[in-house]
Structure formats: C-alpha cells, structure tokens
UniProtKB/TrEMBL annotation:
This is Putative beta-lactamase-inhibitor-like, PepSY-like. It comes from Mesonia phycicola. The keyword Plastid does not apply. Residues 1-19 form the signal peptide. Residues 52-140 form the Putative beta-lactamase-inhibitor-like PepSY-like domain.
Amino acid sequence: MKTLKILGVLSLMAISANAQDLLPTEVPQQIRTNFQNSYQNATDVEWEKDLEYYKVEFEVSRDDYEIWYSANAKVLKTEKEISARNLPAIVSKNIKNNYSGYSIDDVEEITEGSKTTYYVEVEKWNDEIDLVYSANGKLLRETK
C-alpha cells in the first residue's frame, strides 16, 4: 500500500512537471472559441498545457472551474466547485449517515463524458477524509 501511495505521488509530480502556463494566444483558436462561447462571464482565466491536453482554470460568480480540452477542442473533463447544499440528496444523506459529526469542507462536481462524480472533503477536528461519490450516492473511494 505504501508503495502505491509513493507511486501515486511520483505520478502527480511528473504530470505537474509537464504542465506549462500559456498565454491565451498560445491556445488553439478553436479551444478558445469553444471556451468563450460556453463561459462568457469567466474571470481570472488561466491556461496551461498538460502533456497533450489544454486546461483552463477560471471563476464564474466566485465558483472555481477547471476544464480539460483535447487538442481538437473536445471537452474531456470539467471540475466545478459547488456548495454542499447542491449535492444530490442521496449523497448528502449517505455522508450524514456514515460520517456523523463531520462537517463538509469542500465539494467538487467532476464530469468526464457522461459520468458525474462528487469529490467531498469532510473534517472533524484534525481528522480529514476525502470521499468520492457517484451521482447515485455510491461511495467510490475514501481516503484518510
């Protein structure tokens, strides 16, 4: 298990090392056009190139977003910061039942293709747990 954690950290470091900040003019026009058409109210826009993918981080009405585009301008993944009250009811219920006494700290809605998952960080005192739920409330992963 320890070896898997070390490999995971090293993989993330390698991916991060490949990330390159970009000026908007360095992003292919079709990707910029698709982004601008979809998120006209975006602020604090920052572009990166990660291996062969383009990633944009931005805000809309104080909510944080990240979108990954392929080189041909297809959206591959979207992460959106949401409030705990916007979690599906079944996810909220499962957290309440299984993590009594914990409070929800951060929530992200992650969409890849037609699949949506919810990353939820819960905490109680110094104990912090990262949870990943499917849209139908199934716990997919728990990391302490």
